[in-house]
Design brief:
Elements: E1 35-36, E2 47-48, E3 58-65, H1 72-76, H2 84-93, E4 97-101, H3 103-108, H4 110-118, E5 122-126, H5 149-163, E6 171-172, H6 181-187, E7 193-195, E8 199-200, H7 209-219, E9 224-229, H8 238-251, E10 255-256, H9 259-265, E11 269-270
Parallel strand pairs: 2-7, 3-4, 3-9, 3-10, 4-5, 6-7, 8-9
Antiparallel strand pairs: 1-11
Helix pairs in contact: 2-8, 7-8
Organism: Streptomyces caelestis
Protein name: Polysaccharide deacetylase
GO molecular function, one term: hydrolase activity, acting on carbon-nitrogen (but not peptide) bonds
């Protein structure tokens, strides 16, 4: 998100340096281009798993804000796919994070999506519109046909723009983490970097927050990408696990960063996202 600076001229009697505008910004600086990875073999969508293992002890906490396209009736019946307590904890602990959000989640919780997108602590990335699988046999998820994969990703970006997320990143996480060559080829024109992980938090449907915390703490290495969830009904222990993990990793000398910072450190090259400007209506 671009930093906004006040554009007013200083008063004549006592010139002052311009101060940051707390609300309505004017004359914002040009947004920076997020780092991406070069295309993979045969020009396929590149896949990122973790940052450098040497140098600074950095780690990226990532949270999947999952909601599948057909779960609207469950949300209407009271099931909660958001997790405000988790986001509040990350803010209180001042932990930067990357949220991989489905378009359907952003439709259901537009105020929260917009708040995340406008908070410099976080970055919003793409987790598809539908949360349908991009391969067969992926944890029982419905599947997206190859000719609809790019459209599903672009539809999510369209929803982000509609609800007011100003700068979604050109990063994509496959639902369930399932992908193959066909999926990578289908998404090549979208210009995204696929982001996986090297540490599974194990918070999905978990009931023991301490077990989740131990799994994260046992797995983290310099440059790790940790996958967790931002859905209260499916991952109710995540907030408690995060409150345990964050101070312990800081005690071990780790610094929390967003995925974009790990990609930059891994020699990702900054290039304009080729097709992340939404072309389809939600």
């Amino acid at each position: 998100m671009a930093t906004a600076l006040a554009a007013c001229a200083p008063p004549r009697p006592a010139p002052q340096a311009p101060r940051p505008a707390p609300s309505a910004p004017s004359a914002p600086s040009a947004p920076s281009v997020p780092p991406t990875l070069a295309p993979g073999p045969s020009g396929l969508t590149p896949v990122f798993h973790h940052g450098p293992r040497t140098g600074d002890r950095t780690v990226a906490l990532t949270f999947d804000a999952d909601m599948t396209a057909d779960q609207g009736p469950r949300a209407a019946a009271g099931e909660r796919f958001d997790h405000p307590g988790l986001i509040a904890a990350l803010r209180a602990l001042e932990v930067p994070a990357t949220v991989f959000m489905t378009g359907r989640w952003a439709e259901e919780y537009p105020d929260q999506a917009r708040s995340l997108g406008r908070d410099p602590l976080f970055e919003v990335a793409n987790h598809s519109y539908s949360h349908y699988a991009f391969t067969g046999d992926c944890y029982g998820l419905p599947t997206v046909s190859a000719d609809r994969m790019r459209a599903d990703v672009e539809r999510a970006y369209a929803v982000f723009r509609k609800v007011g997320v100003p700068d979604p990143k050109p990063y994509f996480r496959f639902p369930g983490g399932c992908y193959d060559r066909t999926a990578l080829k289908a998404l090549t024109p979208a210009g995204v970097t696929a982001v996986q992980w090297d540490v599974v938090g194990g918070d999905a449907f978990a009931t023991d927050a301490e077990a989740v915390a131990r799994q994260v703490l046992d797995g983290v290495r310099p440059g790790s990408v940790v996958v967790l969830h931002c859905t209260r009904s499916a991952a109710p222990t995540t907030e408690r696990a995060v409150r345990r993990v964050v101070p312990e990793l800081r005690r071990r000398g780790y610094r929390f960063v967003r995925v974009s910072e790990l990609i930059a450190a891994a020699n990702g090259r900054a290039e304009p996202p080729r097709a992340v400007v939404p072309t389809l209506e939600p």
